[in-house]
Amino acid sequence: MNRTLKNFTLRIACILLALAPLSSHGEDPVPGTVRCGNLIYAKGKTSVCFSSEFLKRISKDTNVVADETLHAVKLDSPELYDFPFCVMTGEGTFSLTQPQRDSIRFYLTNGGFIIASAGCSNRKWSKSFRREIELAFPDVQLTRLDWSHPVFSTVYKINVLDLGGGKEAYLEGLEIDGKVVLIFTSDGLNDSGKVSDDCCCCGGNEIDNARQVNANLLAYTLTH
Questions:
Q1: Domain with 151 in it: what CATH number?
Q2: How confident is the model at residue 83 (pLDDT cuts 50, 70, 90)?
Q3: CB within 10 Å: which end of the chain, N or C, has fewer?
C-alpha cells in the first residue's frame, strides 16, 4: 500500500471509530460510542489526575454518546488508532523516543486529536512538550487561538478561561490542512478536583471551566 493510500485509510479509520459501534474489553458494543485515550508516553509517564467528567457532560448535553472512561494507551502502540481523541498530561521534564515522535506526527496527520495540558500549570512539563512538538513538527508551529475559533462555541459558548484570582489562560493550537488537531495549554485543563481526593492542584493553577472546554474540543473533533 502506498503512503498516500495508507494515510487516507487511517484517516477514514479514525472517523469511523468516532461514529461506528465500538466494544470495550469484551463488552457488547454500544452504537455510536466514542472512546477517548489517556496517553502513556516517554518512559511510562501518564496522567492519573485528568478528569473524565467532560465525557459525562457531553453525553448529557448533546447527542454524542461517550464512553465515560479514559483508556490508557501507549503513544507508540497500534492501539492508539482505537481512539480518535486522546489526552496527554503530566508534570516534570520528559523526552519522547523517536518512535513516539513519529507516532504522534502520524496520528495527528491522519485524523487523531490530542489535548495536551500541563498538570497544575507545571512549567517543566510545558517546556518539554513544546520541545517535543517542535521536533515532531518542525514545519508547523503552535499558535494562540482567537476567541472566534469554533473550539470556543461547538457546544458551550466560552468567552474566558478562568484561572481564578482575576487570572486568565489561553489555548494554543496545532493546525494541519485547515483543522486544529492538537490543543495545548500551559495551564491545566485537567479538572483534577473531580478525579479523587488524592488529586489536587497544589503546584499551580487549573482552568475553572475546563469541563466545558474539553467537551467543546471533543465535539470539534467529531464535527470538523
A1: 3.40.50.12140
A2: very high
A3: N
In the numeric block, the cell 488524592 is attached to: 198
Give Cα 211 distance to the centre of its chain. 13
Sign of the torsion formed by the C-alpha atoms of 84, 162, 170 and 38? negative
Among 112, 89, 32, 128, smallest CA distance to 206 is for 89
Closest CA to 219 of 157, 136, 170, 147: 157
Residue 88 to residue 70: CA distance in whole angstroms:
11
Instruction: For Cα atoms 16, 50, 72, give the angle at the middle one, nearest 5 degrees.
Output: 50
Strand pairing partners for 144? Answer: 172
Residues paired with 174 in a beta bridge:
182
Q: How many domains does the chain have?
A: 1
Name the residue range of residue 154's domain.
3-18+30-223
Give me the long-range contacts of 134-140 (CB less than 8 A, separation at least 24): 135/96, 135/101, 136/96, 136/101, 136/102, 136/104, 136/105, 137/105, 137/174, 140/174, 140/175, 140/176
Instruction: Please compute the mean of the pLDDT values over residues 138-149 and round it to a whole number.
Output: 96
